[in-house]
TrEMBL record:
A Pfam family annotated for this UniProt entry: SCAN
Lineage: Eukaryota, Metazoa, Chordata, Craniata, Vertebrata
Source organism per UniProt: Coilia grayii
Domain SCAN box, chain residue ranges per copy: 231-309
Protein name per Swiss-Prot or TrEMBL: SCAN box domain-containing protein
InterPro entries, A to Z: SCAN_dom, SCAN_sf
Length: 333
């Protein structure tokens, strides 16, 4: 360590040349010279890099060249030094590209936040205008406070394309709890939608995009959540091994309610027809049941008529096919 202290006190080329590999590393740390693991492998490379930095700091005199080759560097050493400089340049360029991408992403995030804030301000101005013109009563203005999107967006559930109903259920609970107005619900909904839901929202006209019921209907239609889809979900449910029986019963009840709601079951008679048609289809061959499902009948009598028509068509088709195979009968010969 005394050699390094002596060199720092009086830096000379002779004192520098007498330093060992470990002392060169310690000297680089003393002057905060950046080195990587590759730089520390060979003493001649390490010595060259440290010397260059000390020359730039005016602590050592510049290297004097004799023609094309330095007096203390071989051609191979200079070639390796040049390669090191190229590698460092590539590394610096890659770091600059990563930094540029990060800055670009930060700008996009900031622009998104500013856009949301502008939408929020426009919504607030619209609400205040309605209050001033008397189109919104005092009770409405008191029960529908202004919505700060930047603060409330963290309350929104994550949109899941595989379970759109659960998302809307959770979203409406939050919206009802904070008494968000219809326009605010659409704006908050826009911040969470993705995939086919976002495409369905963007396809709406301006009036529909500000009406929550229209937006919800368009999103559900995009995922084809029709009565048959709900029926299949309900009929195909199985209890996962890690789920309790209470949780499974709740999920089963929820899927049944969604099926009834999509089928517009509003009375005991509607529910009876739904159950009777379902039971009727379970007693039929699969192809007949599928045919009835495609026609979306409302009563079991309608389903029975369709089943008879389907069976009759199948019999005629089978008879025609058999006649074609047999060819002309022998009596006509």
């Amino acid at each position: 360590m005394s050699e390094i202290d002596d060199f720092v006190a009086a830096p000379t080329a002779e004192a520098f040349d007498s330093l060992t590999k470990d002392q060169l590393i310690q000297l680089a740390e003393r002057y905060e010279i950046p080195l990587n693991s590759y730089d520390k492998r060979r003493k001649d490379v390490l010595k060259t890099l440290v010397r260059e930095e000390l020359v730039e700091l005016s602590l050592l005199p510049p290297i004097k060249f004799d023609g094309l080759v330095a007096s203390d560097l071989t051609f191979d050493q200079q070639k390796e030094l040049l390669q090191l400089q190229i590698d460092k340049g590539k590394q610096q360029l890659a770091e600059q590209q990563v930094l540029a991408e990060r800055c670009k992403l930060d700008r996009e995030i900031q622009l998104g936040k500013l856009e949301i804030e502008r939408e929020c301000l426009a919504l607030e101005r619209q609400r205040l205008s309605l209050v001033e013109t008397g189109n919104m009563g005092s009770s409405d203005s008191g029960s529908s406070p202004s919505v700060d999107i930047t603060k409330n967006i963290r309350l929104l559930p994550k949109f899941d394309e595989s379970d759109v109903d659960t998302f809307f259920n959770l979203f409406e609970r939050v919206a009802d709890l904070y008494r968000w107005p219809d326009a605010a619900r659409c704006l908050m909904l826009q911040c969470t939608l993705s995939g086919r839901a976002a495409q369905a929202y963007s396809a709406l006209g301006l009036p529909e995009s500000r009406t929550y019921s229209c937006v919800k209907k368009a999103v559900l239609r995009a995922y084809e959540l029709v009565p048959e889809a709900y029926r299949q979900k309900f009929r195909g449910m199985r209890k996962p091994p890690n789920q309790s029986y209470v949780e499974f019963a709740d999920e089963l009840s929820l899927q049944f309610k969604r099926w009834c709601s999509s089928a517009k079951v509003e009375s005991i008679e509607d529910l009876s027809n739904l159950v009777l048609v379902e039971q009727f289809k379970t007693c039929l061959p699969e192809d007949v049941a599928v045919y009835i499902s495609e026609h979306q009948v409302a009563t079991v009598s309608e389903a029975a008529v369709l089943a008879d028509d389907y069976a009759l068509v199948c019999i005629r088709a089978s008879s025609s096919h058999w006649s074609f195979i047999q060819g002309p009968s022998s009596s006509t010969v």
